[in-house]
Structures are given as structure tokens and as C-alpha cells.
Design goal:
Elements (H helix, E strand, L loop, with lengths): L13 H36 L1 H8 L4 H26 L3 H31 L15 H37 L4 H30 L6
Helix pairs in contact: 1-2, 1-5, 1-6, 2-5, 3-4, 3-6, 4-5, 5-6
């Protein structure tokens, strides 16, 4: 019979298990950095080639929506930290509360982003056959919005995954999942969520402030 129910059989002790899990998450995040880095590189190349068009196209984004979403993600990072702290203190109800609040902030972020997409499609900014912005180089402006929808869409997909995991661990914390088993999982989920927030911190000025800062 295993003495420590939170310890998987392949590990000698809890520290080894935690180190292995943490290393796995950092390797995963490193691949995500490369993935997002390729998109940021593509954006940078096109912006250097046509800075004025990219700046003008940026002015057609909804900066207020982007600002509110930035604030939401920053607050969610704080609630995630509180959730990790509660998990380490073996307080399942507090853990569930902070994780649920973090998930809720993520849902609000996605809702605002959805309304933002709807507005942009209605305004003809979807980079398809009907794309058009008066007085601008349409192919280059179309590329800006192609990159905009690609980068923010991939980011939103990562938020969806994060919200799903947050919801799962909220339920586990509420319905009897052993608190000791939650600690490492919540810590790793926190790393993932902070990474998602950090990506948005880079996206926000590139997408929304490129023209307004000029």
C-alpha cells in the first residue's frame, strides 16, 4: 500500500514527481514560445516592410475592447496566484473559488473578443474577398488583419483550453479530490495561464497600439 496517496508509483518521492511535472510543463511552454514566436516574426517582417499601412490598419481595431481585455487578464493572473497559494495551503474551497473566478474572467475575455470579431466582420475587416478599407493599400491592410485574426484567434483558443482546465480543477477541488494531489496540478496550470496572459501583453501593443503610438 502506497504511503503517500499523492505520489505516483514511478517516483521515489514527492519532490521528484513535482520536478518531473514542472520540467514537462516548461518544455511544453518552450514549444509554445516557438509557435507564437513564428507569428510574431511574420508580423514584424510585414510591419517593417509597410509600417504606415500597418499603423493605419491598427487604427481600425477596437482599442477599448483590447484595453478592457488586457485588464481582465492581468486581474486573472492575480486570482490565479491566489488559487495556487490556496492549493499549497491545502484549502480546497478557497482554491476552487479562486480558480472559478479566474475561469470567469477568461470567459468574459472571450465574450468581449467575440463581440469584437463580430464588429470587425460587420465592418468588412475579415481578410476575404469583400475586405476593403478606403484610402489604404488593401493587400497589405488585408495582411494586417489576417495576422490579427490568426494571432488573436490562436491566443483565444489557448484561453479556451485554460478555462476548461480551470473549470475541471475547480470541480476537483470542490468534490473531494485529495488536496495534496491538486497542488502540483494547480501550480502547473498557473504557469500555463501566466504564459497565456504574457502572450496577450505582447499582442496588445502590437495589434492595438501600432497606429495610435505613431
Amino acid at each position: 500500500m502506497q504511503a503517500n496517496p499523492a505520489l505516483a508509483h514511478q517516483f521515489e518521492d514527492a519532490a521528484q514527481q513535482r520536478d518531473a511535472a514542472t520540467l514537462g510543463m516548461w518544455i511544453f511552454l518552450a514549444t509554445e514560445v516557438l509557435f507564437f514566436g513564428a507569428m510574431f516574426l511574420g508580423y514584424t517582417v510585414y510591419r517593417i516592410g509597410s509600417p504606415h499601412v500597418f499603423q493605419a490598419a491598427s487604427n481600425h481595431t477596437l482599442v477599448l475592447a483590447g484595453t478592457v481585455n488586457t485588464a481582465l487578464l492581468l486581474i486573472s493572473s492575480f486570482t490565479m496566484v491566489l488559487g495556487v497559494r490556496a492549493a499549497k495551503g491545502l484549502r480546497p474551497r478557497a482554491t476552487a473559488g479562486f480558480l472559478a473566478l479566474t475561469a470567469l474572467l477568461g470567459v468574459v475575455f472571450l465574450t468581449i473578443k467575440g463581440f469584437e470579431y463580430r464588429h470587425e466582420v460587420y465592418e468588412g475587416l475579415w481578410p476575404g474577398h469583400h475586405f476593403h478599407i478606403d484610402g489604404m493599400d488593401s493587400p497589405v491592410a488585408r495582411m494586417f488583419f489576417y495576422l490579427y485574426f490568426l494571432m488573436t484567434g490562436v491566443h483565444a483558443f489557448h484561453v479556451v483550453i485554460g478555462v476548461g482546465m480551470l473549470s475541471l480543477f475547480t470541480l476537483r477541488a470542490l468534490f473531494g479530490f485529495q488536496p495534496a494531489k491538486l497542488v502540483t496540478s494547480v501550480e502547473l496550470l498557473g504557469l500555463y495561464w501566466h504564459f497565456v496572459d504574457l502572450v496577450w501583453i505582447f499582442l496588445f501593443p502590437l495589434i492595438y497600439l501600432a497606429g495610435r503610438a505613431a
